[in-house]
Amino acid sequence: MNLIFCLYAYFPFGGLQRDFIKIASKAIDRGHSVRVLTMAWQGDQPQGLDVQLLPHSALSNHGRCLKYTQTVVKLLPGMNYDAVVGFNRMPGLDLYYAADSCYQARMKGLRALAPRLMGRYKTYVGFEKAIFSPQSKTEILSISPQEQRKFIDCYGTPEERLHLLPPGISRDRFRPANAVAIRSEVRAELGLCEEHIMLLMVGSAFDTKGVDRAIRAVANLPEGLRSQVRMFVIGRGKVDTFSSFSKKMGLADQVDFLGGRDDVPKFLLAADLLIHTARTENTGTVLIEAMAAGLPVLVTENCGYAFHVRDAEAGCLVPTPFEQETLNETLKEALSSQDLRKLGENGVQYTARVDVTGLHDKAVDIIEAVAGRRGRS
């Protein structure tokens, strides 16, 4: 089959981008041809992937996205393909991989009307309507039960067009036999002794991930406990801004920003607690990765995969609506608890009995089925 994948931009360390590249690679492994239409590409290209760059410029990000989608819609009639798969909101798709949370639902939560009058709102809600309205024929690859319900509530999307996928973590996230040795080696590299408490955050876009929330919570720990904590942040974001904030909170020597990395599994083994205080999060794959590695989790309840942490009894949930004082107290209780190791073991047992790796294979199965019904080549 000839497949066209559409993505605004690719960089190696985003969760959506990782899923995109894994789905594309699996499709190629099954013998399909995959052409990617994107505005920008950073990093290596998998063998067999045909990347076509469509750079666009505009005064705003939504303006760039609008120009890109208009170009794609014009190009498609002249292309040979069986299905178009989008990894960002846009019209003209046969299938949409719903990694982004429902934009209209987020805007409904804002009291001010001004955002709804702006071009950004009009553009992104228009893209969502093109995908989720009852009149659309786009099939949706859904990865979050709670976001799926929001799309149905906002747009009246027929449930038969929504295909809920399992999580899709890599096998290298599961705790290996030499986990203790890796933990000791990494902690030594980081200058940590066993008395140190290592907090880990993983994710790009630091404001969205709530890095400031986590820093505030550490700063508010009792002095004796706070002095033991070292916090490490892996991902892309405004390092200077958040580094300055950590200094302002008196944590200049206790918060380290490590940038985007491809060796996250060893940090999951080295840490004592994953803290994921996201303001919005469609899923949160790192939550499942942490559980598989035996790392307990502290997570805001609004994250799509937080229910896995709850069901597994593998950590602590901060309820919605978010309150900083509640996070502060939850972190203090978690770090003072004698049950962290038990919570980590609960996560390992849960990921051993629940399918947490099948997302990418299942996604390609559905793409093949839809492309088979709509084949145009």
CATH architecture of the largest domain: 3-Layer(aba) Sandwich
User: What is the total tally of β strands?
Assistant: 13
Residue share in helix: 40-55%
Arrangement of strands in the largest sheet: 3-2-1-4-5-6-7
* SSE pattern, N- to C-terminal: EHEEHEEHHHEHEHEHHHEHEHEHEHEHHH
Mean pLDDT over the residues = 94
Strand content: 15-25%
Q: In CATH, what is the homologous superfamily of the largest domain? A: Glycogen Phosphorylase B
Over the alpha carbons, how many angstroms does the gyration radius reach?
Answer: 21 Å
Number of helices: 17
Separation of the first and last Cα atoms: 8 Å
Helix-and-strand structural type: alpha/beta
Poorly predicted ranges (pLDDT <50, ≥5 residues)? Answer: none
Brief description of this entry?
With about 375 residues, the chain is an alpha/beta fold.
Q: Could you describe the 3D structure shown?
A:
By secondary structure, this protein is of the alpha/beta class. The chain has 2 domains: 2-166 and 358-374, Rossmann fold (3-Layer(aba) Sandwich); 171-353, Rossmann fold (3-Layer(aba) Sandwich). Helices cover 45% and strands 18% of the residues. It contains 17 helices and 13 strands. The chain has helices spanning 15-29, 61-75, 103-108, 114-117, 119-132, 145-155, 179-189, 206-209, 211-219, 223-226, 239-248, 264-270, 285-293, 306-312, 324-336, 340-353, 359-374, and strands at 2-10, 33-41, 49-53, 83-86, 95-98, 139-142, 162-164, 197-202, 229-234, 255-259, 273-276, 297-300, 315-318. A 7-stranded parallel beta sheet has the order 3-2-1-4-5-6-7, with helices on both faces. Strand 11, helix 13 and strand 12 form a beta-alpha-beta unit. Helix 1 (15-29) crosses helix 17 (359-374), helix 7 crosses helix 12 (264-270) and helix 9 (211-219) crosses helix 15 (324-336). The radius of gyration is 21 Å and the shape is globular. The mean pLDDT is 94.
